[in-house]
Amino acid sequence: MQVNGTVVMVTGGSSGLGYATALRLAAAGAHVVVASRSKPPVTDPDAERRLHHAPCDVRIESDVAAALDVAAELGPLRAVVSCAGIIGFGRLLSNRTPLSSALFRELIEVNLFGTFNVLQQSVARMADNEPIDGERGVVVCTSSVAAYEGQIGQVAYAASKAAVVGMTLPAARDLARDCIRVATIAPGVFETPMCQVMTPAVRTSLLGQIPHPARFGDPDEFALLGEHIIRNPMINGEVIRLDAALRMSTR
Q1: Is 148 inside a domain boundary?
Q2: The one catalytic residue among 19, 104, 157, 190
Q3: Which residue in 14, 102, 107, 128 is a FRET match for 89, CA 20 to 30 A apart?
Q4: Lowest-confidence range among 85-94, 135-144, 163-172?
Q5: How many CB atoms are closer than 10 A to CB 149?
Q6: From residue 36, how far is each of 59, 106, 157, 220 by CA, in Å?
Q7: What is the mean pLDDT of residues 65-82?
Q8: CB of 22 within 8 A of CB of 40?
Q9: Does the residue 247 lie in any domain?
Q10: pLDDT at site 105
């Protein structure tokens, strides 16, 4: 699928991986709707003209619908990159106190239901598109390597991200007859605001486990893969790890 001239929606696009993705796609000529709770911190007037903010909490169905309406004003929506998500920590049992059900529920609502909500509503719009080169649309979801190697204290977070992995293939199969692709990126550790909650000891431990390149990822490297998935029609039903060969231990 071509990016230039295409209408794309990026959720969670006001910071981190989503913001980098929105900027990269806009630079490639896309009309980008940034669906996020806060407005992206654009300082470049040229970039500001290419981005269109739609206030959105991905948990709220009417918010997602309103963001999709903003996209529809620009043209047929053909690509979505779903980056909205939160992180949270808590052991299943800590000092005989069980994990907060409120924390578990919040992570599931944002990371899993939010992803599903965006996917469900987006593909309903895409199904009405005229096919271009055999495609009506593509949705890129975001999981995490925690879906495979969740750490101590990540029961809730890992569950929410593993469920996104589990949705990917059946969603792609469901939508094959509609000529809509679905793929997921499972990033490792990237330099985003989420990393700010890590203690220096945790950062040092994680850096010591990354084989090559032995550093945290740049958000634009995530954006580069998101753009490639949109462009490459053979990527469908796949979860792609983007982690510099990181396989997290329990250290």
Answers
A1: yes
A2: 157
A3: 14
A4: 85-94
A5: 17
A6: 11, 17, 20, 18
A7: 98
A8: yes
A9: no
A10: 97
Half-sphere exposure (Cβ direction) of 44: Cα atoms closer than 13 Å: 7
Q: With H, G, I as helix, E, B as strand and everything else as coil, classify residue 236.
A: coil
Torsion sign across C-alpha atoms 47, 52, 54, 58 = negative
Measured CA to CA, the distance from residue 189 to residue 116 in angstroms comes to 23
Residue 98 is assigned to a structural domain of this protein: yes
pLDDT in tens, 78-128: 999 999 999 998 998 988 899 999 999 999 999 999 999 999 999 999 999
- Tokens 């043209």 locate to 75
Residue 16 lies in a domain: yes
Contact present, 82 and 184 (Cβ < 8 Å) = no
Average pLDDT over residues 237-246: 96
Q: How many domains does the chain have?
A: 1
Q: Is 157 labeled as catalytic in the residue annotation?
A: yes
- Residue 233 tokens read as 């029609």
Residues in the chain: 251
Q: Which residue bears the tokens 């997602």?
A: 64
| CB 79 within 8 Å of CB 1 | yes
- Structural domain that includes position 11: 7-242
Q: Is the pTM of this model over 0.85?
A: yes
Output the domain CATH number for residue 200.
3.40.50.720
d(CA 154, CA 159): 8
Please give the structure tokens belonging to residue 247: 């396989």
